[in-house]
Structures are given as structure tokens and as C-alpha cells.
Fold each of these.
Amino acid sequence: MKPRALLLTSLLSLPLAGCGGNGRTPLLVYTPHGRDLMLLFEAEFERANPSIDLRFLDMGSQEVYDRVRSEQANPQGDVWFGGPDAIFARAAAEGLLAPYRPSWADAIPKASQAEGDLYFGTFRTLPVLVYQEKLVPADQVPADWDDLFAERFRGRVLIRDPIASGVMRTLFSYQLARSLETTGGLDAGWTWLGRLDAATKEYVANPALLFEKLVRGEGVVTAWELTDILLQRAQGSPLGYRFAASGTPVIDDSIALIEGAPHRAAAVAFVEFAGSADALRLAAERAFRIPARTDLPPETLPDWARDVLARMVPADYDEGLAASKAQEWMGQWDRTVRGRGAPAGGG
């Protein structure tokens, strides 16, 4: 995968008020969605809106939140596009998002909409078990989340740093919320995270580096989101995946206007575009995204998407609890678990 970055020098040279030097209105989108989707959307959006110059800054969802928060007194971005709804909820509570109800809102499940129209789901992001196909025999492929700390993978696990990753925060919070529901306490969840830590060779700074290390064999298993893995496979990477048998914590991948956006009209136009039926079908066909909209006939989606929706079993857990406690739990994980995990076990 190409480096998921945008040259900051080019970005910061853009006029942030009025129109750009070419007479077009600059639109700045903060996103974790990566170049594959964003370059596709940039071309299609600008074709439909020739007076707007779309630029995007690609970073992890936690990094987007940190940036929007740090710019609250002087907003630079216009749209936040992508990331778990849990982190959008934090931003909404802090007054970082502006209300807007797009024309496609009624096609989104109520559970994927924020109170006050502050953010809406666009895609469904699915964490999966990932393995290096050339190095993991077929009979040893991980089948459930507990297999990540099986003895056969000790010291061969690579994990995207959860402090910067909304996907990993969701998976970690899912384990703790499930512990609370099934045992009445958090001890089992913390034990799970400790065993994973003990098996983990490295917490990797970004997805591109994670994939490089897996391909080189520096690690052989991980947990990551399905879209990136399908993109990697399309580019020839030897990365296989499997849905966890116990269930998949489905993430509502959301979009919102940034409060005080310098170019609100252009931002509204992009939100309308990003959730449109045509854009979602394009994203499914060309960038392996699963639409959040429920009004798209299955036959209009590509074969891979229909197959995924048929095979994936959504995890049953208290998503509201996990979202509300994620920040607290991740801080505790960083202080008390990272690098201190209990001895790994399992078979």
C-alpha cells in the first residue's frame, strides 16, 4: 500500500478562507480512509462539483479527534470523514461537531445516527483476524479472538497501536464490555488484554507499516479491519483473513461537519455526496467498503460484499457502554497493561 499521507507543505499552503488561487473553494477533509478511497472520491466529487477543490489529510481516527480538538478555537478542517462512532460521540459531547441532517439520513439505521444530527454512519467497518498465508499453515489459521495469544503465535503477533487506532480501541473495549456482561466484572477482560500483550511482538505505528512487517514475516498474525485487508489482497499481498467465530464488533464508520468549518457550503456538498447511493456503490465496487445504508438492494452490491454480509456474525455486546468507557479503559490499558502482560496461554 502506498504511504497513507498527504504532503503537509502542500496542504498548509492552501488558502483557508474564500476561494483558492484557481478560483475554486478549498475543502479540507480529515480522514482515516486512506488514499485508495479518497483519491476515488476526490475525482468523482470534483467532477460533480467543479467549483470545489477537495484536499484530504489522512491520519488515524484518534489523531483526527486530537487535531479537531486542538483547532477548536481556529478550525482549519471542514469535514471529518471516517472513524468509529464512539470517537465521534466524544467529539460531539465536546462541541467539536456541527449539526447537519443529510438528505440520505433516513436510509441509515437509527443506531447509526447521533442525537442532534451531529454525525451519521456511512460504512460498516469489520475487524477480522489476519494471518500471513505463506507462514501460517491452513490448520493453524486463527479462528477466534483468543487464538491471537495461542502458544503457536507467541512473539509473532503484531498489533496496530490502539492509542491512535479507533479500530483497535473498539476491539479492546469490546473485550472489556463483554467481560462485564458475562462475568459481572472487568477482570476477565483485563486478563484477555494482558495475554494478548504478552504474545505481542510490537505495537505498530500505522497500517502501512503493519502490512509491510506482516509481508516480510516479522509477525504472522494480527487483528485489523476487513477493507484494508481486501485492498492488500487485491494488490497481491499474502494476507488472509477470517471472521472470529464468537462474533464481529461491527463499527459504524461515520461522517460529520466540523464545528466552525471555514467552508460550510462545500462541506455540506461533500457530506451529501459521501452518503449518496452512487458514492456508496462506487466505494463498494472499487474500495471494498460496506455501505451503512439499508435501502441499497443486495443485487446492486458486488459479490464480495454480499458474501461478507452473509458470513459475518455481528457480536452481541453493550456498544453504548464500550463507547462511553473506551477513553478511560484505553488510558488504563496504556498505564497498566502495555508491555506488562500476563504469561500467554492457549493452544
Amino acid sequence: MNDERDASLTAKIVGGIDQIPAAAWDACGGQDQSNANPFVRHAFFSALEDSGSVAADAGWQPHHVVIEDASGRVMAVAPLYLKSHSYGEYVFDWGWAQAYERAGGRYYPKLQCAVPFTPVTGPRLMTRSDVDAGTRAELQTMLIASMVELARQRRVSSLHVTFPTEAEQALMTTAGFLPRIGEQYHWKNESYASFDDFLNALSSRKRKNIRKEREKANAHGVEIKTLVGADIKPAHWDAFYGFYTSTSDRKWGQAYLTREFFDLLSHRMGDAVVLMMGFAGDRAVCGAINLKGGDTLFGRNWGAAIDLPMLHFECCYYRAIDFAIDHKLAWVEAGAQGQHKIQRGYLPRPTYSAHWIADPGFRRAVQRFLDEERQAVAQHIEALEEFGPFKKD
């Protein structure tokens, strides 16, 4: 695909992350910035693809977009997949698929610009960080046009960009995509010196409740260790994978990630991996995996071989706050869903997605739904903020 507006730039589609040099991809992923996002690192995508967690036979066929200049230097990239289902996305379009197919349409395959299995906001229209603002906008516009052109060539029903930045969503809306917002619950570090310092910012009742929860969680005889990088051994991953598959079987009926993925993740980007693991004696009994970015700790998967009160809150939420305070991180993002996080200091923040629909009639129906949904979500976020645990001014 050649862009006629600038003959020096060429867009192409590649069938795997291994066809893009890691340094070239990461130069577009903001890895040199203070708020670097670990989920858009080449190493993360390669661990997904090389482990078979993401592949055509898993319903995620890579179609990554790459823009090169006349010398062949990679100027911009977008992670893109041809999908045969809607699993592992966290921006749910099952209702759209059912409605379109009831009307006689064919919803799948579709195109998905996303980080698989990862509901984390981050760049999707990724450009080199050393270009000026005008060039960045031109490259991002070219990425959008290339994805839409591919969607038309493949005659797919739709193209979805999930968890982009707010600015990227605005750019795609200008290009004719339908904007959608969601909500997540994130903890903000107000320069706390300790966990007690954080608790002192809460109302008395909420502060006492969290202290009681932590006391209960730590009274079970389970020792919770924070393992980072080289501290995490294959035996830890063996145990954690057992927790992960057990949880996946109960919630979704399948595990998206293979056992090999965790070995590759640890080997290729172990500097970013933080594993909170609980032990009863020498036996690992629970675990929560996190990835550390430049200014954020991202909570991902949790699982346990035992069911003990408050252990989940301790491992996933409170130990993450401890870690963020100790390492002077600005945020903890604890994953999708869960209004129960609000009373534990995680307040609602909007998330974004953008959707291109090929069929005009179907597009109008989706647009009406999204117009109503956006207003409802915005009002919901505003209302939830009033129920936070912090002291009122």
C-alpha cells in the first residue's frame, strides 16, 4: 500500500512481529520515555506470538501495519490482527455481532488493533518519538488510512481499535470512526511516603476497614513475597500457571496464555515483571502478576489454589500500592472491571476505543447505541467519584 500524499512513505502489512526489528518497533513505542508502557514493547508481542498464545489458529492472525521511509527506516507501526471471535478484548461487541448476524450479515472475521488480552490504555498509532508533531500526525493519519484500506480489501465487517489514548481516539473520530468510552479503576500516588500515609488520606471508616482487611489477609499463615526479575524461577511460573488456568477455567472456560508465554516474558522482559506470590511453607498457594512501566504498575492475572478471605485484595491491590509507593510510581492500574476497587482507593477513569463499521445501516445503529452509552458512562464515572474513600474537603 503506497500513500500518494507522500511518495517517500510506504505502508505495508506484515504477518508477524518477528518481521519487524525489535529496535525499530520499540523506537515507535515510546520506550525511551518516562512513562514507557511495557505492553507495547516488541518483547511482549513476540512472547505472545512465539508462544502460540496469539496465532491464526487461536483466532488472532497478525496483520501489523508498518510505515517506512524511502530508506526503509521504520517510522510508524500499529499492532493489528484479523480475528475470528471477540474473546480477549475487554471492549465487548458480542451484542453487535449477534445483531448483525441476525440481520443476515457476517460479522467475523474483523480487524482488531489492540494488545491481545490486555485492557491497558497505551499507544496504538505508534510513531517514532524523534519526529515533530506535524510528522507524527501525518504518520498516524497514514496508519489509520492503511488499516481502513485493508479492512475494505479484506471485506471485513468492522475494524476496532481498543484502549488507545484519548488523543488517538480523537484523531480516529475525525477520520470517521465511532468513539466509545469505558471505565476502569486506578490508584493514584499523591507522593505518599508509606501505606499509612495513604491511609491517612482516607475517611476514618474506610481507613479502619482497609486495616482490618490487611490484618485478616495476613493472619492466614500465608507469606506473601514480592518477586522481581531474576527472582522469578521456572518453578514459580509452574505454580502460577496452575493458578491462572484454574481461574480461567472457572471464569471463561479457556486459558488464553500458554505456559511458554510466561517463560518468554520472564526471559525477554524480566525487568518489568513483578510477581506477588503467597506461600504456605514451601508451597506456592496464590499469585498475582504485574508489569512495571515507567510510572505505572499494571496488575494483570491472579489465581489461587486456596480460598481465604481478603487474600485476593492483599495480593492484587494492597501489595501493588506498597510497591508503587516504595518505587515512587505514579499509578497502579488493577485491570478491568470491579467497582469494589473504589473503596480501596482505586477511582474511576475513562478508557477509550474507536470503531469503523463498513455497512452504513449497521453503522447508524451502532452509532445511536454509542451516543447513548457514552453519556451514560460519563455520568456513571462522575457519580462513582462521589463514593470514593478519601476525606471530603
Amino acid sequence: MRLFACDHCGQPVHFDNRQCIRCGHQLGFLPELVAIYALEADDGQNWRVVAEPERRVRFCANAELDICNWLVAAGDPEPFCVACRHNRLVPNTDTQQGVERWRRIGQAQRHLFYSLLRWNLPHPDRRQDPQGGLVFDFLEDEVQGGNVVPARTGHEEGLIAIRAAEADDVTREQARTLMNEPYRTLLGHFRHETGHFIWNKLIRDRNQVEAFRAVFGDERLDYGAALQQHYDHGPPLNWQDSFISAYASAHPWEDFAECFAHYLHIVDTLETARSFGLAIDPLGYREMAAEVDFNPYKAESAEQLVSAWIPLSVAINAIQRSMGQPDSYPFILSPPVVTKLDYIRQVIGGV
């Protein structure tokens, strides 16, 4: 995520900022321009963009609960922004816990959509594509016979379900430990499950399956049986040699979704590092020196990304350990994984 600036006074601002602390202007994110703008009140619920007074906008309807800071054109009949209009079931906003969960979920969702917009990736909603459009259900756990039955996160033909309780740190950490996962975040869920949707749109629907199979394997392998095998017996020996995660080894669809998520992790973090001018140059370890002197969203190859990412991620992990925290990126990028990441780069870069 790049660092933004108030376009009125130049104060650095972050993606989720609502107000400039220097000039006091209200701030809003304009999706079609993928940028944050200073605003002035106009009439009623409408605002004027300070830099373009003729441009009238209003905030997404979810701004009422301080959930979203994205803007909609004043004349747009849709009350929600281009991210929030994909939501079908949302957390219970009648409770404070529900509102807090909704805020954390919304933050992760907008972070996902920032990347979709940067690459101009397809994201039709269910009005535009009734059968396979992108739609989100944020599901509450159920109580049956006095026992809590966790909602399941998953994807089915454009419908992405995410367990709302994973917005709670304790619940998410319990799930991570139970599943023996090194990494589990809301943003990771969004990116992984959206990877399945992107596979549908850019590979299956465009008849690109043969090229996919050459890299990831045959997705016609029985999916249910493959997952059952994974849960019953775990990943194959030496899975790290060919897969980004143990779960990626379960089935080619999961391998693609995991690689898609990691590609977004890497590009987004490298863009952040570039925005802050970070460079890695450890004393006595010149082979680990790195600087993000390119636009990660327009990388020429996965090798270019990885050559900057590995030194940066090693440094971030070392900082985390110094603070008594677990590694931010506990993964190994083997040569076969880099090949898969380059495939992802070519697929999303060719849209």
C-alpha cells in the first residue's frame, strides 16, 4: 500500500485516514482514481473535491458507522461504494461487537479492492453477473445444542463466505493454532478466497486451463477427496520444495489461490516499502542488500519481486523477533513457487 498525501496541504496520510491533521479537511478515497482527496461540504450529503470543485461526491452509506471512507459519485443511484456494494450478509450492527467486527472486516476488504483496482481485475457484482459475480457473506457462528458451530470460510462460484468471528483476534488465533497454520489474517482470507474467483474469471472462463495445468497440475483431480486426504494425512513430505504452504499442496485450485494471495502480499508490502524509501543493506551481508526502486504492480518478472522481497521479509521477520512477535512472513519461496508467482503475474498483468 502506497503512502498518500493530502492533495490540499501535502500532509502524508494513510489509506484509512478520514481527516487531515494539518489542514483539517475531510478525506475520502475515490476508487476510480485510486487516490485520497480533500473534501469540502457542498449540500446535504454531498461533498466537493477541493482539487476539482466541479466533481461532486458523497460517502459510501457504510460511512455512517465509520466503517468505510470510500466515495461515490453524487449522481450514482448505488448507495454503497464499489467495494461495499458486493456485500450481501454483514455483521450485526445492532451490537457494539458487530460494529467492531464490521469495521475490521471492511478495512481488510478495501485493502483487497485497492489491489483489484490497481490491476483493473474483473470484479462484477451479482447485478452485473447474476451467476458468477463477486459477492460476500460475513457469517455469524451458530449455536446448536449448546455448542458453538463455527461458520465456514470458503468460495463457491463467486460467493465468498468469511467467518465474521475471525475479526476477533482471540478467535482467529485459536483457529490458526487448531489448523497448525503459520499465518492467518482477515486480509489473507480475502486474498485467498478471491484467488478462486479470479481463477474462474481469468482462467476457466477464458479457456486458459492448459497453460494453468502446465504450472499447477490438473485441477480435474477430485477436489473433495483431495481436501479429505489433506486433512486426514497432512501434506506430502518435502512439500516446501514445490508449494508456498502446506494447504497449497492439497489441490491445484488451492495452490493457485494461495499463490495469488501471496503475490498480493508481496506486491502490496513492496509498494509500502517503496513509499517509505526503505532499503536493506546489512553490514557484512552485501548479498542481502535490496532496494525497491521499481513499481511492484508493474514488475517485469517474479524474480524482480523476489530479489527485493526476500531481503525485506528477512529484515521484517528479524524486527518482529526483536519485539517478541512471530515472523510476519514465515514462508519459503522455492524456485517452483517463484515460477507459479510469475504465472500469476502474467495472468493478472494481461487483463
